[in-house]
Amino acid sequence: MTDPSAPAVGWTFLRSRRWIGYFAMLLVFSIACVWLGNWQFERRAEARAEIERLDANYGAPPVALAEEVPVLDAFDEDTRKWRTAAVTGEYLGAPYLARNRPGPQGVGSDLIQPLRTTDGAIFFVNRGWVPVDGSDADSGTIGADELPQPPSGVVEVEVRLRASEPEVPGRTSSGSTVASIDLPELARLTDSEGEAYTGAYGMLVSESPAGDHGVLPPKPERDEGPHLSYALQWYVFILIAAIGVAFAARQEYRGLNAGSTAVRAQDRRRDARKSRRGPSDADVEDAMLDA
Predict the structure, then answer these.
(1) Residue of 130, 147, 158, 145 whose CA lies nearest to 63
(2) Cα 4 from chain centroid?
(3) What is the average pLDDT across 69-81?
(4) SS3 163
(5) Which family does it belong to (predicted)?
């Protein structure tokens, strides 16, 4: 119990090692929240940029592949992603399966078919999703002739352009399956290094004459996600933490300075406000229970 005759401490306790530790923890927590909030703002900016690309490119008329991708090993994803390209050529050999792809029936694979263009280059076309696990194909339970077959001979294809996917660390190609649509890896597997498009591949839109293909993806949603609300949430956490520290400091101040003139004056002002407002509902309920 505080001794009323003891001298007032004031706010000097805030200079103690314990409170300096509290302030340090608040500072570290605030820095972490600011970093996470800014990260969410960056994620939102990326999502909005993707929406802008969809709006500008997804419905654009097809342009010749050589014009959209003039260099085999480079691709300007910021401006050309989702654009429609037209290419003429002939499908080659059996497809590759990009495994672990989500689809309408669970996890399956994407059919990646090499196409030799009339210019002599190799261009890889994603011909849709199939409910086939890559391990099934490698084990021999799924034959190449059981997969959707592309048209034979010269074919005119329209595709939407996508950038080469990165290599998946720790995962390698196995037989006819690949871990990702890593175009340099596909060029190596098809012995077309130096003559293959390794910057961009195409997601099938249409082909003439038409052949069988897997499930083609729908248009991506124009959704920037909850990144803005998450970002603001982290800044609210800073405010809550600061209010909590301030409240704890005030309570400790009142406990250490219970007999001081300042604290007694605060108590008198609080009691005066209560008397002007009259008894609260809780006070009335307590009086009724006592009676």
Answers:
(1) 158
(2) 59
(3) 91
(4) strand
(5) Belongs to the SURF1 family.
CA distances from 263 to 4, 256, 258, 266 (A): 11, 10, 6, 5
Round to whole Å and give the CA distance between 266 and 278: 18
Q: Where are the domains of the chain?
A: 9-58+221-263, 60-208
- Two structure tokens written together for 151: 């048209």
Question: Closest by alpha carbon to 166, among 185, 152, 144, 146?
Answer: 185
Q: What radius of gyration, in Å, describes the C-alpha atoms of the chain?
A: 33
Q: Is the pLDDT of residue 287 over 70?
A: no
Q: Contact at 8 Å (CB) between 80 and 161?
A: yes
Banded model confidence at residue 146, pLDDT cuts 50, 70, 90: confident
CB 125 within 8 A of CB 190: no
Around 132, how many Cα atoms within 13 Å sit in the side-chain half-sphere? Answer: 27
Q: What gap in Å lies between CA 111 and CA 94, rounded to an integer?
A: 10
171 or 92, greater pLDDT: 92
What pTM, to 2 d.p., does this model score? 0.73
* Maximum pairwise Cα distance, the chain: 102
- Residues 115 and 105: their CA atoms lie apart, in Å, by 27
> For residue 274, what are the CA distances in angstroms to 226, 269, 278?
44, 9, 6
